[in-house]
Amino acid sequence: MRDNKALPARKALRTAVLLLAALPAFAADAPLDRFMREVMRRFDLPGGQIALARDGRFVFSRAYGFADTRRRIRVRSSSLFRIGSVSKTVTQVAILTLVDAGKLRLSDRAFVLLDHLKPPPGASPDPRLHDITVLHLLQHQAGWDSIEPMFPPWSRKAAAALNVPEPPECETIVRFMRGRPLDYTPGTRTSYSNFGYCVLGRIVEHVSGVSYEEYVKNNVLRPAGIGSMRIGGTRLRERAPREVLYYHQLNQTELPYMTESVFPGEGMTPWAYGGYYLRATDAHGGWIGSAEDIARFGLAIDGRWGPPLLSSAGRHVLMNLPRKQGEEYPLDTPFHVSHAGALQGSNSALLYRTREGLSVGITFNSLPVDYRGFFAALMEGLDAALASVHAVSSARR
Question: pLDDT tens digit string along 231-273?
Fold first, then answer.
């Protein structure tokens, strides 16, 4: 959905970004605080965070609502949230660090690199699999469209096909998908693919020789000064220290509150704590972190917080990758990198990094029923709040 009415606000945003670094706290507090409170009220969100960073420091950071509604434990700036598909941007940067280091090329063939992950016995792999490049995977152009193998019921079918215990790890899902036909010829169209990023995570492991999580921590997060992000756990008992609880929207109609656990024999469970296997989503949706972590990561890409994670060539590739959320905005708007993230019955998050050097992280511990309308409202509301910051700062000058 394209919304041209929002473009004047984005023009004002360009000026607001340039002023934010010098703003006193009171100038930014009111508009951004109103924005967050209104979003949480309108969409019935229990808890959330927002952080804005520029030039190596936080311009604004605040936590709202509850990490645990029953025990009335409030969200803090250090609270950790699942960030969903914002994880894909982390994976994009990890892949591009390997390209910058000369260990990988965007033209490399993915399944030549992963030839050790064999298809199920008796399968007849699609010959076009060998045409899939690393760049196709980054661009969601690798050929998959019709099924979602990272989640039930297809993840269960993957485990059965390879005769391994449920829930299956990423390697099992990759092997399973190698035995299925592609839906289109790689590079001929774009179709958002969680599985494509599962494959990218395995490429990170193969090329680096360490686990995906270890590589990202050592080569992406720690250089950015981020020490708290990690791959999250699935069950409630696997919740990390300082991690919030997740809340299913009670007025959900399409997604029941309870579902069969991905762990056999564990019965029915809330979606957030067993509807999917979070560790298998590592490279496309498995990270947990705070809004401050997201905002800091956004600045670290080009060295506005710590050493630059990517070369100028790497940043150019990153800036021009397709985005699931925000793709309705024209390329001449002030986006540098943006990505939304969500997991059903669990959470929502946003990374919003502008070319002018403002990085915004937002997290919530629930996902509204109308998630498309929610993310559209979130982006528009953020634009309007930042435009108001510009107006307030201009009036005080």
Answer: 999 999 999 999 999 999 865 555 667 899 999 999 999 999 9
What pLDDT sits at residue 28?
A: 57
**What type of residue is 51?**
A
Tens of pLDDT, residues 128-178 = 999 999 999 999 999 999 999 999 999 999 999 999 999 999 999 999 999
